[in-house]
Specification:
This protein is an alpha+beta fold. The protein has one domain: Cytochrome p450 (Orthogonal Bundle). It is 47% helix and 13% strand. It contains 19 helices and eleven strands. Strands 1-2-7-4 form a four-stranded mixed sheet, with helices on both faces. Strand 1 and strand 2 form a beta hairpin. Helix 8 packs parallel to helix 19 and helix 13 runs antiparallel to helix 14. The radius of gyration is 23 Å and the shape is globular. Bound molecules: protoporphyrin IX containing FE (HEM). The site of protoporphyrin IX containing FE (HEM) has 24 residues, from helix 14 and helix 19. Pathway: Secondary metabolite biosynthesis; terpenoid biosynthesis.
């Protein structure tokens, strides 16, 4: 393993010394500290391209450079596949669905699913997002009036957002599946131990029968196995119901109908097997819920830290609601968001500052040359403008590192400031990387987030509904929130990570003048 690992070398690129051990390199700091804390520290010291040590002498590249990321994600198509061990984690979390698939399998799966995620489809879900947000608000109002005299209470926000819309008919409060998913990531993938880091990084070298044996026995993966069982059960019931509706001629272009139709397809290139179909449902459930819910959590935290942002946001939302009522309407549509620039700016800034996934993992599928936005000084002091990389090199794309890159977002990139989105452009031509607002939060290219429009509209709906009805304030505990890395970035309280995701904020009903 050592010989194989050290054959793929980029030792001319600068990076931190592997302070943990030869066995684990820099991976403990990369994976165990607060999400992206190591990335930002190394970015400051070495620039936007950093060599980090993996297990047993392995070299990896941490990338925050715009042109290099654009090349990997967009220009190279499928030539930079996902890192093998991360695909294995995706398989364990959600089966052989879209986040696991690669190459031709991915192309086929994505082509089948894409029509379910267009702008029109996402827009049609807006009333469902508002209704879910409203339901949550009503619940909070009841809790506040039942529990406190001063009209406020400390809420442990852990799961908001419209969990049930993805497949319809699930009640968020009682559903076994919703509960299983809520804690899956923090329990199974949160703060990996040194043993887990080593095991996951060396999995690829084990024969598959032995790997599967360990995975079946692993206590750490018990929760993932249980979620798989519940998830497949729920998915099967929903699929049967959908198949019957389709037989009755009630089909449409929602994602469930597309999956069921592809399962029945005679054509190999548009067919999805039953295990694949179940995996897609579990994938959407997981990829869609944890990411959006945590982005909302981080947004609320930031606007509590800077109350003037919260006040400005609420003023815009109330004005927009008044306008809506004056025009005899009761419900926002997506086109109304265009007249709410500050709300959109807050959403954009939250997505930039707190990407729900802070890392994405790739491998060079061939010897390649990465173009660089910023010239890089290497170990012998020379400065290079492109970097030659060997086939098999593992790469960590630092989504947070890119999103806070000063070359891209300006000198104040490390400050949460929605106003940056309201400034007029300086006309400088930029390297465009992400699918939305040029942030890398939804990744880019052929493997970009398929549900980004859903996330965007869902975030708008929840933010509008919650800020319109409630005021949020920091509690002393919230000062100790850490950015806990567990496949996604979730808020936990320092030293109490084992209690799971929580964000204690003081919430009171907002009184309209
Ligand atoms: C704020 C919310 C969200 C964020 C930050 C986010 C972020 C991402 C990122 C970074 C990726 C690429 C991962 C990689 O390359 O390893 C991704 C992929 C994906 N996302 Fe999202 N996502 C969000 C919401 C959603 C929603 C709402 C859905 C579904 C309804 C969804 C479904 C997926 C799927 C299926 C993939 C795999 C796409 C592929 O590989 O072709 N995501 N997401």
């Amino acid at each position: 393993v050592y010989r194989r690992n050290t054959k793929i070398s980029i030792d001319h690129v600068r990076g931190p010394v592997a302070d943990a051990s030869f066995l684990l390199g820099n991976l403990p700091e990369l994976y165990q500290s607060d999400a992206a804390a190591a990335d930002l520290k190394w970015q400051k010291a070495y620039g936007d391209i950093v060599r980090v040590k993996g297990v047993l002498g392995e070299d990896r590249l941490l990338i925050m450079d715009a042109k290099a990321l654009q090349y990997i994600y967009q220009t190279s198509g499928y030539h930079w596949p996902k890192m093998w061990e991360r695909r294995e984690l995706s398989r364990l979390a959600a089966g052989q669905g879209l986040t696991w698939a690669d190459g031709d399998v991915h192309k086929r799966q994505r082509k089948i699913m894409l029509p379910g995620f267009g702008t029109r489809e996402a827009r049609s879900f807006l009333p469902i997002f508002f209704s879910a947000a409203n339901k949550l608000g009503e619940k909070w109002k009841d809790m506040i009036s039942a529990s406190s005299a001063d009209g406020s209470m400390v809420m442990l926000l852990e799961k908001a957002t419209a969990f049930d819309y993805r497949f319809g008919g699930l009640d968020d409060d009682k559903n076994e599946l919703a509960n299983a998913y809520t804690t899956l990531l923090s329990e199974t993938f949160g703060s990996p131990s040194l043993t887990s880091i080593f095991t996951i990084s060396t999995w690829a070298h084990l024969p598959s029968w032995l790997r599967h044996f360990f995975q079946r026995k692993s206590a750490k993966l018990r929760h993932a196995r249980e979620t798989e069982r519940i998830g497949n059960g729920v998915a099967k019931t929903l699929i049967d119901a959908k198949a019957n509706a389709l037989l009755d001629g009630k089909g449409n272009k929602d994602i469930m109908s597309l999956l069921v139709q592809s399962n029945n397809s005679e054509n190999e290139s548009t067919r999805m097997s039953t295990p694949e179909m179940l995996a897609q449902m579990r994938t959407i459930m997981l990829a869609g819920h944890e990411t959006t819910a945590n982005t909302l959590n981080w947004t609320l935290l930031e606007i509590c830290k800077q109350p003037h942002i919260q006040r400005k946001l609420r003023a815009e939302i109330w004005a927009a609601e008044n306008e809506l009522r004056t025009n005899g309407r009761t419900q926002f549509e997506v086109s109304d968001f265009e007249n709410m620039p500050y709300t959109t700016a807050v959403v954009k800034e939250a997505l930039r500052f707190h990407p729900a996934l802070h890392h994405a993992f790739r491998t060079a599928g061939r010897d390649d040359v990465l173009p660089l936005s910023t010239p890089l000084r290497v170990i012998d002091g020379t400065v290079i403008t492109e970097l030659t990389v060997p086939k098999g090199l593992k790469v960590v794309a630092s989504i947070t590192g890119y999103n806070r890159n000063k070359q891209v977002f300006g000198e104040d990139a490390d400050v949460f400031n929605p106003d940056r989105w309201l400034r007029t452009s300086d006309g400088k031509k930029q390297t465009v990387v992400g699918v939305y607002a040029n942030v890398l939060t939804f990744a880019a290219g052929v493997r970009s987030c398929i549900g980004w429009r859903f996330a965007l509209y869902e975030l708008h709906a929840f933010l509008i509904e919650l800020i319109s009805n409630f005021e949020f304030e920091l509690t002393p505990e919230a000062e100790h929130v850490r950015r806990h890395p567990c496949l996604v970035v979730a808020p936990t309280i320092e030293g109490r990570e084992n209690e799971g995701v929580q964000l204690p904020l003081k919430v009171r009903i907002a009184i309209r003048e």
